[in-house]
Amino acid sequence: MPEPPRAGATLTVDLDAICANWRRLAAMLRPGANCAAVVKADAYGCGAIQVAPALLAAGCRRFGVASLDEGLALAPLLRDADILVFSGPLPGTEAEYTARRLIPVLNSPAQAAAWVELARKLDRRLPAVLHVDTGLTRLGFGLEEARALAEDNALRAAIDIQLVMSHLACAEEPAHPMNASQLAAFRAARAFLPGVEGSLAASSGIFLGADWHADWARPGAALYGINPTPNKPNPMRQVVHLQGEIVQVREIDAGRTVGYGATWRAPGKARLATAALGYADGLPRTLSNRGAAYLGDTRVPIVGRVSMDLTVFDVTQAPPELARPGAMLDLIGPRLVVDEVAETAGTIAYELMTGLGQRLRRVYVGAGAR
Ligand SMILES: *Cc1c(COP(=O)(O)O)cnc(C)c1O
Known about the structure:
Bound molecules: pyridoxal-5'-phosphate
Oligomer: single chain
Helix content: 25-40%
């Protein structure tokens, strides 16, 4: 039975575009390098349960998530692939990794020690990824700690280190000296573990060139249409389309104010449309009196403050036959791409997308959409 139409806000996610972006990134890598897919934070707000199986079908065999819970949610769907958990096991959770074949990223000697302890208890060698900090200073082994781990034969017997990983701090700025210094530190770390594969580049790192590709790239953002090369045209396909439904249209007189705080005052007679989405749906409140939507081909500015569930648009310039209850306004889409909306809101597309609300009706189109 077709779903009845519902008032509100809709996020349409194009799974074909995500898969095309993954293929495009994979094709850019140096020969022999592979492309993983980062699906943390519910696949950057797109819905990991839908996105990860589509990427599996497209050929992706390694996935990255941030937390154990994210890994557990995907494990039944990705039996033929590896799931890396970037946070690594928090104390006491190690056994949950082995139960679901999740591969922990070991970020500290303490995490490695706990993983060794479990390996001994189970009397088998356990897989892991070693994270070396080369300058981001967030998580990871220091270079000397990595050397000590590599030289610890008992530890190496207990842990099968499948990958040496590091993460770049300034990859979206190709000329930044950190890119070269982190590459050098990464190579130094890999030299401690000859024969073990390496992974350094996320989305923007792929565009730095083959030296940064190592054996596995780990893109997230670019899969979802975020521009990995800021200040240059976006090479990725757009993935998300955020729409809000108009629930009321009204004519107002000059001088009337709109919304909480009465921050917008009509300079003349105006026609306003109130749409059923607000900051609880992920529309940043910082778009108040700054952002806009498209109604058909007409740009319609946000007037007054974005509130929790409702946002008001000045549709005076839009054709009256379009500006009516039930019509959909485009908040993010072909005319207003995520990076642009995020910039207007004073943030980055990563934050905008991962803040898209759970309340949005999500519609999937393309490969494997159910
Ligand atoms: C989030 C994350 C990625 C993906 O980064 P993007 O910039 O979104 O491509 C890769 N690796 C690690 C460790 C991450 O935390």
